[in-house]
Design brief:
By secondary structure, the chain is of the alpha/beta class. It folds into 3 domains: about 5-120 and about 185-200 and about 285-310, P-loop containing nucleotide triphosphate hydrolases (Rossmann fold, 3-Layer(aba) Sandwich); about 125-180, Histone, subunit A; about 200-275, Crystal structure of tRNA isopentenylpyrophosphate transferase (bh2366) domain (Helix Hairpins, Orthogonal Bundle). The chain is about 55% helix and about 10% strand. It has a 6-stranded parallel sheet with strand order 3-2-4-1-7-8, sandwiched between helices. Strands 5-6 form a two-stranded antiparallel sheet. Helix 2 links the parallel strand 2 (about 30-35) and strand 3.
Length: about 300
């Protein structure tokens, strides 16, 4: 990509690193608009627990690819890429700077590397087959099936991400082709500047813990109760609602169990803290790979290690 190509700024990092707090002032400085790279910001009625940009933040800087689906509606990687690329093209066409902001590694990688995501629509029966296999045999056995069918895909998909493993197996079974063969890529029409917010791990854990308590104070339990009521009105009983992809967002299953009386709030807090630490470690591995890849192809990369260096 030549230096004459329009620029996109990608602000990435683990949960609680302060991506929005960094990106919103930056967007104001560069006459930019934000394209979300958070797989949970696409859901309506899931605001507090996903730390979605507030109405005031959205008034300050225009945001794209958020609040697109209800919690029981499907949303695929292919749809995300299509919508995000359209948003980026629109921002550039209006002479502004697009900022890709978020912590969903696959969304970031798909856009920065120009993935051409396979246009294979969901196939309910096949998906349920592999979901049932995972429930009966465990995620390790599920991943072994993927590795046996497509070793190249197994090297790029997190074995703990059951939903992604199931989708890869589903696509291969429906299309008759390997997942890795379908993951074509083409250079994007813009050059990316990558800004990785990567503060020290212990600081990040403390920030995540403090944010969790703030979200509870802001009414996360009430939000989850309202969400379950909404899903119930649409025909989803409590157990079925817990299995929806949207409810795999950090903490929502635990908050739902508290609402249902199956878990105490203290138990939920302990489990959410544990899950958040695991997630932060996984995000760090993923984004380090993106930083290394960007540097290897001559991309502009900045790694910010302390909150004081976030000053834009």
């Amino acid at each position: 990509m030549t230096s004459a190509a329009p620029k996109l700024i990608a602000v990435i990092g683990p949960t609680a690193a302060g991506k929005s707090a960094y990106a919103i002032p930056l967007a104001s400085q560069v006459d930019g608009e934000i394209v979300s790279a958070d797989s949970r910001h696409i859901y309506r009625r899931m605001d507090i627990g996903t730390n979605k940009p507030t109405p005031d933040e959205q008034r300050r800087v225009r945001h794209h690819v958020i609040d697109l689906r209800d919690a029981d509606e499907r949303f695929s990687l292919g749809e995300y890429v299509q919508l995000a690329e359209a948003a980026i093209a629109d921002i550039l066409a209006r002479g502004k700077t697009p900022l890709l902001v978020g912590g969903t590694g696959q969304y970031v990688r798909a856009l920065l590397r120009g993935w051409q995501v396979p246009p294979v629509p969901p196939h309910d029966a096949t998906r349920e087959k592999w979901q049932r296999y995972a429930r009966e045999h465990g995620q390790a056995a599920l991943f072994a099936e993927l590795a046996a069918r497509d070793p190249d895909a197994a090297r790029t998909i997190d074995p703990r991400n059951v939903r992604r493993v199931v989708r890869a197996l589903e696509v291969m079974e429906v299309s008759g082709r390997r997942w890795s063969e379908l993951q074509r890529s083409a250079p994007p029409a813009w050059r990316a500047e990558l800004i990785y917010l990567n503060p020290p791990r212990e600081w990040l854990y403390a920030q995540a813990d403090a944010r969790l308590m703030r979200m509870i104070e802001q009414g996360w339990l009430a939000e989850t109760e309202a969400l379950l009521d909404f899903l119930g009105q649409r025909g989803w009983d409590a157990d079925a609602a817990l299995r929806l992809p949207s409810m795999s967002a950090l903490g929502y299953r635990e908050m739902a169990l508290v609402v249902m009386g199956r878990m105490t709030l203290d138990q939920a807090i302990t489990e959410i803290k544990r899950a958040t630490r695991r997630f932060i470690r996984a995000q760090d591995v993923w984004f380090r790979q993106e930083v290394a890849h960007a540097a290897s192809v001559g991309g502009a990369v900045r790694v910010l290690r302390s909150a004081s260096s976030y000053e834009t």
